[in-house]
Amino acid sequence: MAKRLKICINTGGGDAPGLNAVIEAVTMAAYNRQWEVYGIKSGYAGLLNTEEIIQLTPEKVYGIASLGGTILGTTNKGNPFMMPVCNAAGECEQRDLSDRVMDNFRRLHFDALVAVGGDGSLDIAHRFAAKGMPVVGVPKTIDNDMGGTVITFGFDTAVSIATEAIDRLHSTAKSHDRVMVVELMGRNAGFIALNSGISGNADVILIPEIPFDIDKVCEKLMENELRGHKYAIMVVAEGALPKGGDVITKGAAEPGRQHVILGGIAEYVAKEISQRTGKDSRSMVLGHLQRGGSPTTFDRLLSLRFGAAAVRAIEQGKFDHMVGLQSPDIVLVPLEKALGMQKRVRVDGDTVLTGRDLGICFGD
Amino acid sequence: MAKRLKICINTGGGDAPGLNAVIEAVTMAAYNRQWEVYGIKSGYAGLLNTEEIIQLTPEKVYGIASLGGTILGTTNKGNPFMMPVCNAAGECEQRDLSDRVMDNFRRLHFDALVAVGGDGSLDIAHRFAAKGMPVVGVPKTIDNDMGGTVITFGFDTAVSIATEAIDRLHSTAKSHDRVMVVELMGRNAGFIALNSGISGNADVILIPEIPFDIDKVCEKLMENELRGHKYAIMVVAEGALPKGGDVITKGAAEPGRQHVILGGIAEYVAKEISQRTGKDSRSMVLGHLQRGGSPTTFDRLLSLRFGAAAVRAIEQGKFDHMVGLQSPDIVLVPLEKALGMQKRVRVDGDTVLTGRDLGICFGD
Amino acid sequence: MAKRLKICINTGGGDAPGLNAVIEAVTMAAYNRQWEVYGIKSGYAGLLNTEEIIQLTPEKVYGIASLGGTILGTTNKGNPFMMPVCNAAGECEQRDLSDRVMDNFRRLHFDALVAVGGDGSLDIAHRFAAKGMPVVGVPKTIDNDMGGTVITFGFDTAVSIATEAIDRLHSTAKSHDRVMVVELMGRNAGFIALNSGISGNADVILIPEIPFDIDKVCEKLMENELRGHKYAIMVVAEGALPKGGDVITKGAAEPGRQHVILGGIAEYVAKEISQRTGKDSRSMVLGHLQRGGSPTTFDRLLSLRFGAAAVRAIEQGKFDHMVGLQSPDIVLVPLEKALGMQKRVRVDGDTVLTGRDLGICFGD
Amino acid sequence: MAKRLKICINTGGGDAPGLNAVIEAVTMAAYNRQWEVYGIKSGYAGLLNTEEIIQLTPEKVYGIASLGGTILGTTNKGNPFMMPVCNAAGECEQRDLSDRVMDNFRRLHFDALVAVGGDGSLDIAHRFAAKGMPVVGVPKTIDNDMGGTVITFGFDTAVSIATEAIDRLHSTAKSHDRVMVVELMGRNAGFIALNSGISGNADVILIPEIPFDIDKVCEKLMENELRGHKYAIMVVAEGALPKGGDVITKGAAEPGRQHVILGGIAEYVAKEISQRTGKDSRSMVLGHLQRGGSPTTFDRLLSLRFGAAAVRAIEQGKFDHMVGLQSPDIVLVPLEKALGMQKRVRVDGDTVLTGRDLGICFGD
Lengths: 364, 364, 364, 364
What we know:
Chain A is α/β, with parallel strands linked by helices. The first copy, chain A, is 36% helix and 18% strand. In chain A, strand 1 (6-11), helix 1 (19-31) and strand 2 form a beta-alpha-beta unit.
């Protein structure tokens, strides 16, 4: 008879639609093996402060797959390998508390950890694996920039929300002969902007992988105008950059990801277009709408498959790996290998080619 | 046998989901009476330049009720009673071209005009009625601030989109213990913010009808914090104002309606909260997402009912009136009376009371 | 200082989107008055078996307004005034257990009951009021056939789901030149069929209020065919009846409401059309899809307003009444009066007229 | 300078969300190469009767990617290799009219055909390729049962619609302690039922690839009952079969695909469960709702990529191939090879394993 394991799961980093579905699948797959499963709240903090650990049961996870957010909280309260610790006088230093995490993990008799997170969280997971913790990773990023998997959960939802927003902007841009510049997420990758821009019938798409020339963009808009198409929808990835230019998003502590109130790339682009073409141009930042709320059916299923596959990996003793999608299969990829790969939009890939075929301007 | 009339329809002002449904209903109701019906493009401009008039047929309008935008264009190219006219030297003056509109209307043998628009457009319609044009109005405003009707089309869609956005912001605000301040449309009325704030489970709602005290808002957030509710969703109407304060949205050519890039009320509120409470606060302006795209089923039906009722009003010779909803009936209201009424949120009405009962803070 | 009341709430009858929002609003409005509030499970059964009572707290209801179903269960386990009671030998009789309910209500020191339900449940509530129970009703029916209120929650959701389904059927009916007959709910009223049929661009709508002549329907389809419109969408209310005909839904224990597997009105109509016109005709019963799942924003808000108004009614000592919408206000209506009114589609009302104006055939 | 080609496109077989997006992409990709592009209506019929050919322009296809249906009509009016031809006396015979199609194709100076269709239509395309027509296929099936591509457009939409329906059924099944049996499409494959059943939290999933034992299903339901889970959602693929049993869907001219009014597999299963367990069981057939209407964003993008890739294939002279998705790339697959492969759910694949891990019963 198989051993009854005792496993735990945490979720780290920003919100991504599908987190709860991963938790539901891990819980149910463990429960159906008669294992015990625990949720560690707030990333690794729960293994420093063991009060933040809750037992997960079928009742607690029933039906949560369709809900946004995460019942475990995603706020990373720091990296246990470099945790800020402050004394009464307010003086702080970074301390390596990873041994305390390891001690708690062993003291609680956990047999494995399912770590759900982005490259930061999975890097921490890999370091714990090196210290002897049996860990299986589940990749999470709405930006789709992680290696080792064709896609991650949350991305399909983000692209869908962005496309719906672009759809809605067409009618109002059209009725006012206006240029609407929408800034989308993606960090240093242009996947969300590319996919939703093509799906949403954008006239211009600017992504980090293709540095843009603002004059080329203006030419496109003027050509459209001559053909009677007086309004325009432009989709700009937060990490898009002008050719040979400096970084534009001044004031951003973390470049790209933040909604920079004092000016982001979309605002910059809208202003330049206004000045150069005289067209009424407006910018908007879609922001957090892209990463919250209920997952699409695609993301629900992918998350459930990821969660169940993580439990099967534990059963097989396959640690220091993460689950990944190599369509149509779920595979296991060594964390080391996955962490070494970062995905970017392939400039000569068929999706960019599709955009060019449709007449979309990439500013190059 | 009834006379076969020849009628026309125009749509003026900003975009509102449901415009195409009104056009479909007017076209079909006229067609089924064996009338002719024409669409005047770009507001009244089509009656100055008669090339901008198209015949509407069942084929042209089939199925457009579910589509956003308007097949007639909503850009008002000016008020015919005060039309900017420029000479070759670039010198412009305002001229009253209303007689030319009247001449064209008669020369084309139109028996009636269905004017779809907000208070501005309906005021123009009323002035043309005074000059002898048989006109029936259809009220249009997503802001729900027009008198003479319980509700207008576009409002239910705007509230639904805003609520869905608020729903999505909960999970990400929660996972980062953050205060999210969302700015919604409404001009000088708080209907969109109030209805979507309550539906979307907001912690704070600020509307023009209830001037707010920023300290009261901060108190509420700190109380929530003490009860373990560390994040907050705040919904702010674009026209919201602090008690005894000046207008905040500097730089807005048209106060309220525009997305003021250099700072709107939401940005102001987020900054104040950040400074006073130390909480991580972000603002976002939902903007044009609220007014574009497909109408909800509610708005589709209301628009179809409005359009058909306008044609019945023409049949009955009931001019200088607009259609309006007095649930569950469509009624006819004299334009003069409707234009004299502006709706605001009733501070002691049951919707505000519902908000208070739910524990929502209005900042007063 | 106001007395701290102890109130309870139950939900009876079939599912309706918005039930949880009523529960959330009642709970929060009571909590914010520092009252205690309890949920009685399974209709009145919880007052026969007091183990089925749970305390409702802000934590338990947080965010449930957007979820379908009801956390209290809606299965009526019988009417306490005529409760089936069986002995060990399996012999059953109906007994009046209403006094036991009254005793338990008093023994638990409840000050008031919020009864959420349809005409059946509210009739029971009214009888308990006559026995001295302080009760406030909240009307619930997706069919919109209750008097005393312009509309009830769940109806907007049902119409929206039905319209979306009709939208989807167009493209497939068109690509196969097919007649699609969709059967919708509504008991003896045609509101859902009428509103979604108009919104969804149906060619034919059959409702109980307008008995139909199948030959008229066939004529319409053949006329369409001649005009090149070869497919058709027909919307049929479950209670629709042919002129002078018998009831068609044989085998229905409860006429109308049930999905009658051995043949319902839609199947009957599809067969008749097939035989008379030779056109490929298919029927489908939308069934429970119309009554489950998340409420629309409209229904969320209406339900929250109803719940909060019920608590204010208790505060004011206004019992034996139900809340109702008289747009834009929530009013209180004596239960006796509301129960005596049943709503039907007004055959000469503007919604039916709109349908006729659009060219929709009602079979008369 | 490249030759300016003249190409055409047809769509064959049943409706699938995304058809219009393929047409838009083919049109735009051709237009941007300064090619001419024509749409052939009603499958191959347009090449028999050349009046059914329309020129496609950017104006005609602008924005159609988000609309359901197909602007070209999908009704196959027969296979040109075996076309029914009838004389005045009503005597019909099948004739091979493929040479007439070839003649018209050449006479109109077409350089290539993009054939969008399922296995039937692509088989015809392959036979025309053998006769010398330069043809590129685009695979279309909502059932996901075609080889040579990881997925086809329409499938993601079908799974999403089915999942949303299942979501809605939970609350009403729960409130009545009922077993709901939903029949989904898929022909002889279980992909739609499997994916939406897992995403929608079904208790039981029956698919053709796993013959079921009704007693195993009943056991599962009774176990659930004992654990307090009194209602159940069962998802049944139209092609599901009992172990060792005969085909159940009597009366189906084309087994599986048709909505068999006299009884389909869901009705059979519901009856059996009712009889064996005494539980209130209902069946519903989701039917055409799964295949009509607007595509999901996923399907829009995939369709656009397929359409653009088909034009690039023509440019490269790569005929008698079809486009296919090998994530993340679009590839070209010889039609002969693709037609020889049929996909079925892999019984030991990770999706079925995920279902088992979640505790879903497959009846085996």
